[in-house]
Amino acid sequence: MTRVALKGVTKRYPVNTVSKRAKLKKAVLNEWFGIKRKEQNVKSREAIAGVTFSLSKGESLALIGRNGAGKSTLLKVISGTLSQDEGKVDVVGRVGGLIELGAGLDKTKTGRANVVERAAVLGIPNEKVVLFQEEIEQFSELGEQFDEPVSTYSSGMKARLGFAISVTLPFDIMICDEALSVGDAKFSAKCLAKVSELKKERIFLFVSHSMTMVQRFCEKGIVLDKGHVAFMGVARDAVAYYENNILYLKNSVHSEEKKGSSSEQDKEGNPSLVRSKEKSSSSVRHKGDDKVVKSFLDPLIVNNEKVVNWDVGLKKSGGGLVFDWDIVFADAFYDHSQLRMGFPIFSDDGQMMFSCTKERFKPQEVLGSDFSGKLIIPSHGLHPGNYYCVVALYDGIEPILRQLICEFKVGSDGVPKFGLYNVDSKWILN
């Protein structure tokens, strides 16, 4: 019966801390004088540690984690290209991979000859090989070049042949490291449809950084963190855990300041209110004294000739945001007719997601030197991730206040998101 079962599997890689000079000295002593010295200072790191799970026919599992988490190492252990240092690996069935699709092809032979060679390794009877050849030729869409040497193929043609071989030959266990599809949009769609069909008949192991693809093709998920299993469960829950606890985890100045305080937190672990210590001793609010390392937030300025004091905060309210501000203008700055204000929101990679702006204020809205108010965004629609809030105040075209308010995180519920952000919508079906 086809199965993949791992119990307490650990794989270590040696980390040699011996200097090049020490290695040369050892080689000289050994070669010239026959003196052999024991290797010293050889350490090891665990690429995967204590991994345990089991799969049977028709089950699909996604391996999720950051680069270096141990995903590819785990696939190699399952495929047999690496041996574990501890634990037990029980794999029953033919293992085929969508990993390096062009790897293993003999460049001196034709595409057809490569299919025959790969089928022979799997022990497929000759009478069945002909049928697989025709199917692979048709799927790869190589045409006449199927009977030409692989050395004449482009990299895309090699990938298409490799993919066609992997999804056509009768593998019981299919492992995939990102390469779910190749080629143009039309061929890529055909690849995805084929994988979706085959995973019902095989054990399917999938490594990907696309959480949408993970949920589309896998029922189960394992989150790896530094080689250890951090979470195991249904794919949607695994994605939510990864996005909330690993992918978007940040140690911002605000999260550091919140430690030990009694400020209220929401279900995503964020402060429900980012406030000034001048107003509340149990919470935090940006007052312009934090070091900003994100270049896309520049320029950050305060024109002290026009702005004497400022205090801006953010409160997360359900799926929305509430900004409140209290700004004190200098007495000499009395003409507020050209005042403009905005609150841009930036993603972690510097893209402005949106900005709520007000181009003009009525005279009764800005009285004297005190300027305070609130901006309510009922639903921000932001996807899971880290975001930066900025306050921007202008006198005409002159910036008089532009400062970072705070960094905040939008948590994940594991549901796939598309586009830049969600908008309020209502479906009416007839």
From TrEMBL:
Record region (Disordered): 258-287
CDD domains per the UniProt record, alphabetical: ABC_KpsT_Wzt (cd03220)
Signal peptide boundaries: none
GO cellular component: membrane
InterPro entries, alphabetized: AAA+_ATPase, ABC_transporter-like_ATP-bd, ABC_transporter-like_CS, ABC_transpr_TagH-like, Bact_Polysacc_Export_ATP-bd, P-loop_NTPase
Pfam families with a match to the protein in the record: ABC_tran
PANTHER family per UniProt: TEICHOIC ACIDS EXPORT ATP-BINDING PROTEIN TAGH
Superkingdom classification of source: Bacteria
Keywords assigned by UniProt, alphabetized: ATP-binding, Nucleotide-binding, Transport
UniProt key word Transport: yes
GO molecular-function terms, A-Z: ABC-type transporter activity; ATP binding; ATP hydrolysis activity
SMART domains xrefs: AAA
Domain ABC transporter per the UniProt entry, residue ranges: 24-251
Name of this protein: ABC transporter domain-containing protein
Transmembrane feature ranges: none
Similarity field: Belongs to the ABC transporter superfamily.
